[in-house]
Amino acid sequence: MRLILFGPPGAGKGTQASKIAENYVAAHISTGDMLRSAVKNGTELGTLAKSYMDKGELVPDDVIIGIIKDRIKEEDAKKGFMLDGFPRTIAQADALNDMLAAENESIDIVVSIEVNDQEIIGRILERAKIEGRKDDTEDVVKNRLSVYRNQTEPLKTYYQSAGVLAEVDGMGTIDEVFERIKTVLNEVKQ
Ligand code: AMP
Predict the structure, then answer these.
(1) pLDDT one-digit tens code per residue, 27-71
(2) Is 2 a catalytic residue?
(3) Which of 1, 18, 121, 124 is the most buried (most CB within 10 A)?
(4) 3-state class of 172 per DSSP?
(5) For 128-187, what is each residue's pLDDT tens digit?
(6) CATH class of the domain whose range is 2-30+80-189
(7) Closest Cα to atom 2 of ligand 1
(8) 190 pLDDT higher than 70
(9) What is the pLDDT of residues 150-164, one digit of tens each?
């Protein structure tokens, strides 16, 4: 199965992604995790990405598209994958379609986790206290949300038109949300 896990920052994508990876797909591809690890290792990519991440801005499309292109060619992603945090712009989604079409493949499902703004800000600030992520301060969080609404949310219409969008209520406990996701994924051909 090739799936995209979609939703605003703080929607619980990371948590749900781990549960989905255990039960449905081998390769969990998180662009945020890949970038954070590049930053930590002080690579050229990390240095470039950090300046955008610290402000809550998106890393340029060509950079992120290059990373995904290489990653989905790896062995563990051949039979299926879950993209977490990618695509975030229409240009990224178009590039992904082209990459998959070249292999006669396509996205099976886009699971969009729906959470309201007030809840999101509360959750992210709480996470900031626990994990100490640099991009979790209130100003940066608000910027990340507005970047999400302006640049990323339009992808819902994009995938709805493609007939692969499934919206899931992200309010409630981790297990409640996962049950809803399971219901949606069980309807997709494996
Ligand atoms: P995340 O952990 O998915 O919230 O990503 C953290 C940060 O990494 C984002 O705020 C962006 O700066 C950057 N990032 C992650 N994925 C992407 C992407 N697909 N396109 C551009 N920037 C990204």
Answers:
(1) 999 999 999 999 999 999 999 999 999 999 999 999 999 999 999
(2) no
(3) 124
(4) coil
(5) 778 777 777 888 888 988 999 999 999 999 999 999 999 999 999 999 999 999 999 998
(6) alpha beta
(7) 32
(8) no
(9) 999 999 999 999 999
Which residues have any ligand 1 atom within 6 Å of their CB? Answer: 9, 31-32, 35, 52-53, 56-59, 64, 85-86, 88, 92, 135, 144
Domain residue limits, the chain: 2-30+80-189
Structure tokens given for 11: 């929607």
Catalytic residue among 13, 50, 123, 180: 13
Q: Please tell me the distance between residue 118's alpha carbon and the centre of ligand 1 in angstroms.
A: 21
Tokens in use for 79?
A: 């039979």
| pLDDT score recorded for residue 26 | 73
Judge whether 127 counts as a catalytic residue: yes
Q: Whose CA is nearest to atom 12 of ligand 1?
A: 53
**pLDDT computed for residue 130 by the predictor:** 83
Helix axes 31-40, 44-53, angle to 10 degrees: 120
**pTM score of the predicted model:** 0.92
Residue 68 burial (CB count, 10 A): 21
Q: Which atom of ligand 1 is nearest to the CA of 35?
A: 8
pLDDT of residue 123: 83
Whole-angstrom Cα distance, residue 79 to residue 2? 8
| Alpha-carbon Rg for the chain in angstroms | 16
